[in-house]
Amino acid sequence: MYKAGPPIVVVRNLNKSYRRGDEIVPVLEDITFDIGQGEFLALMGPSGSGKSTLLNLIAGIDMPDSGSIEIGGVDITSLSETGLARWRASNVGFIFQFYNLIPVLTAFENVELPLLLTGLSRKERREHVETALDVVNLTDRMDHYPGQLSGGQQQRVAIARAVVTDPSILVADEPTGDLDRVSAADILGLMDRLNIESGKTIIMVTHDPRAAEKAHIIRQLDKGVLNAGSETHH
Amino acid sequence: MQVLKLITKNAFRHKLRTGLTVLGITIAILAFGLLRTVIGAWYAGVEASSATRLITRNAVSLVFFLPLSYREKIRQVPGVTEVGYSVWFGGVYISEKNFFPNFATDAKTAMDLYPEFVLPAKQKKEFLRDRKGAVVGIKTAERFGWKIGDTVTLKGTIFPGNWEFVIRGIYHGARKSTDETQFFFHWNYLNETLKKAAPYRADRVGWYLVGVKSPDMAADVAASIDKMFKNSLAETITETEKAFQLSFISMTEAIVMVIRLVSYIVIVIIMAVMANTMAMTVRERTGEYAIMKTLGFGGLYIGALIFGESLIIAAAGSALAILLTFPAAKAFGDYLSQYFPVFIVSRTTIYMDMAAGLVIASVAALFPARRAIKVRIADGLRRIG
What we know:
The complex is a heterodimer of chains A (234) and B (385).
Chain A (H helix, E strand, L loop, with lengths): L6 E14 L2 E14 L3 E5 L6 H8 L7 E6 L2 E2 L5 H11 E4 L11 H6 L9 H14 L15 H13 L5 E5 L7 H18 L2 E5 L3 H4 L4 E6 L2 E2 L5 E2 L1
Parallel strand pairs in A: 3-8, 3-9, 6-7, 7-8
Antiparallel strand pairs in A: 1-2, 1-4, 4-5, 9-10, 9-11
Helix pairs in contact in A: 4-5, 5-6
Chain B lengths: L2 H9 L3 H28 L1 H5 L4 E6 L7 E2 L2 H6 L4 E9 L13 E4 L1 H7 L3 E2 L2 H9 L3 E5 H7 L6 E6 L4 E13 L9 E4 H11 L6 E2 L1 E6 L5 H11 L7 E5 H11 L1 H32 L1 H9 L4 H37 L11 H28 L2 H6 L3
Helix pairs in contact in B: 1-13, 2-11, 2-13, 2-14, 11-14, 13-14
């Protein structure tokens, strides 16, 4: 059984709401929990329960109304937009349901994209990209455009892009939602490997119980509230 | 991977849309360039005028002549180097559609005063020797296929009758801006004929061409000449050649203003078309920009991508337009040479074409870029899928 490391993500009294016309719709209410270093966490819940919103807040691509999110000792809710962008670039890797690759760039160029924000030389960038593509076993497809790759291959490119900067946290929003069973298993296996072999902390939103089984801990969200006693350990 | 590569790839992602936009910009900038050239052609006479040449004409109107006797008096004014004279002949070659400017002039002095009309020494000598001789600009000579020694008959409109001339010289312009369509002949030939047919019209000139020592003296010389003939039967107005040319243009200023206005409207229209293209592009890529922001790219980078793309499309259209402006202006100028003897695409016009392209690109990208920068990542990501 998995043994949790010290908390890398500390979420306290998190609240988030959206405005729909004159109405304020609460999405997350008083969320408090920790994620340990090297943990593989699955967030589950029905549609509209606030899973993706919580993931976006932890990943620093949205801001809460109140509460705090500390990641690796940094309170990301206090960062400016530019500071947050810099923090994301070096600390978080993103994996999306629809891969979200840039269609006019090759697999190599897509993976290289986050490295353009670093001070790495062209040669160093090439080495990093090749290593990342090697991890996802796609070095032979590096010159292919997303349109020339299967869904599973595109998601592997997206994973290579997520890990190329060697972030400590990977966030994945329905990473297998658009894939067939075989490709989904392949992607989950890859994520599992990144968690075990590279020690990446993974936070994954999913509807798929089979995907959630890969996680060490499953947390259930319902109507914006983290259900007490919803934590399942594998 | 370079940023420029991504901008270029983005610019040509929708080939048909980009192609049509480039075509639109090409047509607009081409039209802009040609309209600016038309305005330039309108002012060609002004541009070609010399600061050391004055024109003295009748104070009432150009249609009233001045006595020949003024010549010697003008010559006595301090600062005057030479005095020539001319008459607008207004002759027609075969039919009125074959228009070209033609003058009776004091040949020898006129040739000294207008060094920009370059004539070989032999032709000049032949012209001065032949009372019926005429000199014509290369453009008019080529237009009608005239050669040295050809006899040309002009039908007089102001001075009735058929007037025969022998082409003794064909001049070239010393500069690109020199009018190469003029036709001039000896004033003596006209005057001698008038003395017989209409003596009351003889010994008169349309205007005097006055050479001055230096441009600084022009104002004083002009004032002295006009003062000399004050309260005479034919009072004068003396002005620089530039002011004289501008007085003609002022009569058609409204047309020039309309042309200028249309040239700007063309740019505003294409700016709206381009802005629409960029707005569509950015709306389609909202998700991609959100991804890039997610990866850590800031608003400045996203703005640069959009501005860069707009600039590439506008630059492609502008470059094509500039390349096409020269052959188009040549064809346009050849076709309308009787109206616009000098039709040259100036360097200023090319710079204005470039500036128009830059303005189109910048304005078109401004609002879409602002929108792309402002949109929240979470909202942008919702557009995907």
